[in-house]
């Protein structure tokens, strides 16, 4: 006999009454022992009660896997009370990781064909919750039949099950295409909402379904127009907005159908304008519909006036008291600023006001949008606002704000003096948060502006005298004082009030920088070099400078010690050469044929290495882990020798003789892979100075409706060749012809052996993992002969 056990209600009361966790575990362990004993004895009458208690224990986080097989027995029972608990247990205890879930396929199939609505509903709920790909393939015909059943209860659940099947197995889209057209005529709210969801899933995962459902755009437009004008059902209205959930879902589907399709976009333009102007914005439900309308307008081929209306709606969102709505508006405007710059510019004052938000996420989005709105016409006004924000912004935003100001000033600076003043203000306010290249950029800017040398050195000296804690500012000031210290001592500067400075004050300030505990080793190096340069620009004795230099000959910092030793040697042994060695840096020439040629060479180099910076060692190991892909080729990275041009070629280029060899004929590109809109092309370059080297640039493009993520391309070549893979430019290829991924392969083929290439592609597309391994044998002959 089975020992008496607690009822479910008594078990819940006893567990809740436990005062400690140990007491709770004791109650549960005792009851689980009773449940196991009941399962072993095969009590069919009370099996569903025991499983119900076990499910409650499972919901508390305790192990309940021993009840999986009991779920199968209850599902196979003919009693509804048993099936109800059995299906509930299957949804909670079974998933795709357990092979036991496949055993209920036949039971679900039988229950779907019984015709009993409550039982069909239980089977459909279970299938839509834990149905695996194999189960979906086996049961798709039964679900298709139930889509056209007269009972709305069964049809609604069948539609939701079909959505799950499409997500699991996109190949089943052809099964559910025909019923969807008939279901669009339904008046039942749940069926219509589920149908719109199902069509959306079909269109996102199947190009054929997308083309098929573009024919029903007028019908969708009519449904939405009815919702907006006359309403669908008062019981589904929220805050005076007629069925906002259905409106949002239809707008989402229209956005997918109208994307990159002129005819469909034109059909829905008038409706979108009607929705945008007639929706109440006093409640969140109306704001949700309006936001979905804006997204649809921006994604389709809408009229210019309609796009301006959408931007104005987002501008009104910025004035809303709800922070979530303001954040959504800022994020959406940031996406639109490139395509509709002038329309977004009208809301610039409101965006700037959002910089003062106390919410960090809002102020960050407002900063990003403000920086994106800067152009040559408003750069002065925007920089004033951004500099004021920089002084009071939170510490975690200072780096982004400072970097954004520097980039905008470099791009849109009206004058060099304004540019210098802007950078100096940033360095003074947030010098510790600027990018590493800010010092080099400012020194280059000052060096190239000869007419501003006196102005710059006076400004920087004043700033350095007030604050030596901002290290980038101190470095630039030390460099400028060392280069143009003579202009500082002359005191002639028309732009600012004349400043009388003597030599002792300048030397004392640089010594203060050297001795400060806040100075970095690099900053001390700038100051020491500035002192050394001043030794040729000052009229007085250099003994003080020599003493400071000799002190740092024993500095613990190796770099600073080396500088001091070299400078001291310059004083002692090569004093006659000191003036020539320490003369002013030459002006930086940014224009002219030499600069144009350098820019051209840089552009060519960028085309060859467009993929990304050189990968780190772990990345290289991961990319080249292709053991035995092709004739046992090793996946280890093989370092190629440098490209040393031959003497003859170098002589021809040096003398620019007319007998220079003509450039080789271009090698034709090759398409090697295409699947569901994802395409892989190879382009080839053989440098004339090293014919044994072949540079292959792979380009991955995506013309489908879904993004390609986690894209990895690996390669192998025969043992007689050497292969080196550069890191790719990214791992995501956006949908609809977005920015492609590029990657560079370097192949050394000194013996001119026939070239074969084996590729392995792995990526995620339409929520499915894809892996393709294939060999490329049709490479152009010009790539290896």
Automatic annotation (TrEMBL):
Residues 588-617 are annotated as: Disordered. It comes from Piliocolobus tephrosceles. PANTHER family: ADAPTIN, ALPHA/GAMMA/EPSILON. Residues 665-780 form the GAE domain. Pfam families: Adaptin_N (PF01602), Alpha_adaptinC2 (PF02883). GO terms for biological process: intracellular protein transport; vesicle-mediated transport. Belongs to the adaptor complexes large subunit family. The keyword ATP-binding does not apply. Residues 588-603 have a biased composition (Basic and acidic residues). One of its GO terms (cellular component) is AP-1 adaptor complex. It is a peripheral membrane protein. This is AP-1 complex subunit gamma. It is found in: Cytoplasmic vesicle membrane; Endomembrane system; Golgi apparatus. Keywords: Cytoplasmic vesicle, Golgi apparatus, Membrane, Protein transport, Transport.
């Amino acid at each position: 006999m089975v020992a008496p056990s607690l009822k479910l209600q008594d078990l819940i009361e006893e567990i809740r009454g436990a005062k400690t966790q140990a007491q709770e575990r004791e109650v549960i362990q005792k009851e689980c022992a009773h449940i196991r004993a009941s399962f072993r004895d095969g009590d069919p009458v009370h099996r569903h009660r025991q499983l119900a208690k076990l499910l409650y224990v499972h919901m508390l986080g305790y192990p309940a896997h021993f009840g999986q097989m009991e779920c199968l027995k209850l599902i196979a029972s003919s009693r509804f009370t048993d099936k109800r608990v059995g299906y509930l247990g299957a949804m909670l205890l079974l998933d795709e990781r357990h092979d036991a879930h496949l055993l209920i396929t036949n039971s679900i199939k039988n229950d779907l064909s019984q015709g009993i609505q409550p039982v069909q509903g239980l089977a459909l709920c279970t299938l839509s919750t834990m149905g695996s790909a194999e189960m979906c393939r086996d049961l798709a015909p039964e679900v298709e039949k139930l889509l056209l059943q007269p009972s709305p209860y069964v049809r609604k659940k069948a539609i939701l099950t079909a959505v799950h099947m499409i997500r699991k197995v996109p190949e089943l889209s052809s099964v559910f295409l025909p019923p969807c057209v008939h279901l669009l005529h339904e008046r039942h709210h749940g069926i219509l909402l589920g149908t719109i969801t199902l069509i959306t899933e079909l269109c996102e995962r199947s190009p054929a379904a997308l083309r098929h459902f573009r024919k029903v755009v007028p019908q969708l437009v009519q449904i939405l127009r009815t919702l907006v004008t006359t309403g669908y059902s008062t019981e589904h209205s929220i805050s005076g907005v007629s069925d906002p959930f259905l409106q949002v879902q239809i707008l989402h589907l229209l956005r997918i159908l109208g994307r990159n399709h002129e005819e469909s976009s034109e059909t829905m333009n008038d409706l979108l304008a009607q929705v945008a102007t007639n929706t109440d914005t006093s409640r969140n439900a109306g704001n949700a519909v309006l936001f979905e309308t804006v997204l649809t307008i921006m994604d389709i081929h809408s009229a210019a006036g309609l796009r301006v209306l959408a931007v104005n709606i987002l501008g009104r969102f910025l004035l809303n008291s709800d922070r979530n709505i303001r954040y959504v508006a800022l994020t959406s405007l940031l996406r639109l600023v490139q395509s509709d710059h002038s329309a977004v510019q009208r809301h610039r004052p409101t965006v700037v006001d959002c910089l003062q938000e106390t919410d960090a996420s809002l102020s960050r989005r407002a900063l990003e949008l403000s920086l994106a709105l800067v152009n040559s016409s408003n750069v002065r006004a925007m920089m004033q606002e951004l500099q004021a924000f920089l002084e009071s912004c939170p510490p975690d935003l200072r780096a982004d704000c400072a970097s954004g100001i520097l980039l905008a000033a470099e791009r849109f600076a009206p004058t060099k003096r304004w540019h210098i003043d802007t950078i100096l203000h940033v360095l003074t306010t947030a010098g510790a948060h600027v990018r590493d290249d800010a010092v080099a950029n400012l020194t280059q800017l000052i060096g190239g502006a000869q007419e501003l040398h006196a102005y710059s050195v006076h400004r920087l000296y004043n700033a350095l005298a007030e604050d030596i804690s901002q290290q980038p500012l101190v470095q630039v000031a030390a460099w400028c004082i060392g280069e143009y210290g003579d202009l500082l001592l002359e005191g002639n500067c028309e732009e600012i009030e004349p400043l009388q400075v003597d030599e002792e004050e300048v030397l004392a300030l640089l010594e203060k920088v050297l001795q400060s505990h806040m100075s970095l080793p690099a900053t001390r190096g700038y100051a020491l070099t500035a002192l050394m340069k001043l030794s040729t620009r000052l009229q007085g004795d250099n003994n003080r400078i020599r003493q400071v230099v000799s002190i740092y000959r024993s500095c613990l910092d190796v770099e600073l010690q080396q500088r001091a030793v070299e400078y001291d040697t310059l004083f002692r042994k090569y004093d006659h050469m000191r003036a020539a060695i320490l003369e002013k840096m030459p002006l930086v020439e940014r224009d002219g044929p030499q600069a144009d040629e350098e820019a051209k060479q840089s552009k060519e180099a960028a085309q060859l290495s467009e993929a990304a910076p050189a990968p780190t060692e772990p990345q290289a190991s991961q990319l080249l882990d292709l053991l035995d892909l092709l004739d046992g080729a090793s996946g280890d990275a093989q370092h190629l020798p440098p490209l040393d041009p031959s003497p003859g070629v170098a002589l021809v280029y040096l003398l620019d003789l007319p007998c220079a060899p003509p450039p080789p004929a271009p090698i034709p590109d090759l398409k090697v892979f295409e699947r569901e809109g994802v395409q892989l092309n190879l382009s080839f370059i053989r440098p004339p100075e090293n014919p044994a080297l072949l540079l292959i640039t792979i380009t991955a493009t995506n013309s489908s409706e879904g993004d390609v993520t986690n894209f990895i391309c690996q390669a192998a070549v025969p043992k007689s060749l050497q292969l080196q893979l550069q890191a790719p430019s990214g791992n995501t290829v956006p949908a609809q012809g977005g920015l492609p991924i590029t990657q560079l392969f370097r192949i050394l083929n000194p013996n001119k052996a026939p070239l074969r290439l084996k590729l392995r592609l792995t990526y995620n597309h339409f929520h499915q993992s894809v892996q393709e391994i294939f060999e490329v044998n049709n490479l152009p002959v010009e790539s290896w002969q």
